[in-house]
Design a protein that fits this description.
By secondary structure, the protein is α/β, with parallel strands linked by helices. Helices cover 48% and strands 15% of the residues. Strand 4, helix 4 and strand 5 form a beta-alpha-beta unit.
């Protein structure tokens, strides 16, 4: 029970890595605020937690809107009285297109949700954690933000920003009890990537081959890493990025 008696918050908690993280937080003993742009999917995740014997609330928020992010934290406090750990996972990819074909609207939406959203979440999460004297935040970044990704300029740029922002925030609050880290997932079997595979023949096999393990990851494998970084077993870890990538970065065929 890594997170026994803690309160966790997960954005993008209605599906994929976010849902897996919310369920893992609850399994490991936390009460959970499940946040998503779509309230119905957040409610589904919260219902799954309650059906398993845990405590959860569902919150609707657009993480690109400061008023809604502030309200998200306030609703968590009203329900549970504290905030110990947060996983900032909500993101928007911006589609697949050559850089010169990217529409400004898609570019801006990716920056607003994926990068600005993480900044806003920390802007309102950190003060609450400071009043408690401690807390842990994990931002979901991506290997795309490390090495770039063809046809994904908006997403890669935003995730690169998340990595820099994570390190900056970690440096600012390391002496004040708030630890801030990031996780870089590899190819994870989420609804979004499965939808992509359904549209592009052979994409799943090619993606799996980029991993040294020659398989995709499961959302729960990312969630376990997030829970560890949020737990008291990681109290000397801040400002780091954990690659949960099945060996993409050591696969000689992708270097």
């Amino acid at each position: 029970m890594l997170l026994q008696d803690k309160v966790g918050l997960v954005t993008g908690g209605g599906s994929g890595i976010g849902r897996a993280t919310a369920l893992t937080f609850a399994r490991d003993g936390a009460r959970v605020a499940v946040v998503d742009y779509h309230l119905e999917t957040a409610q589904e995740t919260a219902d799954m937690i309650r059906q398993a014997g845990g405590e959860a609330i569902a919150v609707r928020a657009n993480v690109a809107q400061p008023v809604e992010v502030e309200a998200m934290v306030e609703q968590t406090m009203a329900a549970f009285g504290r905030l110990d750990c947060a996983c900032n996972n909500a993101a928007f990819g911006g589609g697949f297109a050559p850089l010169t074909d990217v529409e400004e609207k898609s570019w801006q939406l990716a920056q607003d949700v994926t990068l600005k959203g993480v900044w806003l979440c920390m802007k309102y999460q950190v003060p609450q954690m400071l009043t408690q004297g401690r807390g842990a935040i994990v931002n979901i970044a991506s290997l795309s933000g490390v090495r770039g990704e063809a046809l994904q300029a908006p997403y890669s740029a935003a995730k690169g920003g998340v990595l820099a922002l994570t390190r900056t925030a970690a440096a600012e609050y390391a002496q004040r009890g708030v630890r801030i880290n990031a996780v870089n997932p590899g190819g994870i079997r989420t609804p979004a990537i499965l939808n992509y595979f359904a549209q592009v023949p052979g994409a799943e096999e090619r993606t799996a081959a980029t991993h040294a393990m020659r398989r995709l990851g499961e959302p729960e494998e990312v969630a376990d890493a997030v829970a560890y970084l949020c737990s008291d077993r990681a109290t000397f870890i801040t400002g780091t990025t954990l690659d949960v990538d099945g060996g993409i970065m050591v696969n000689p065929h992708t270097l």
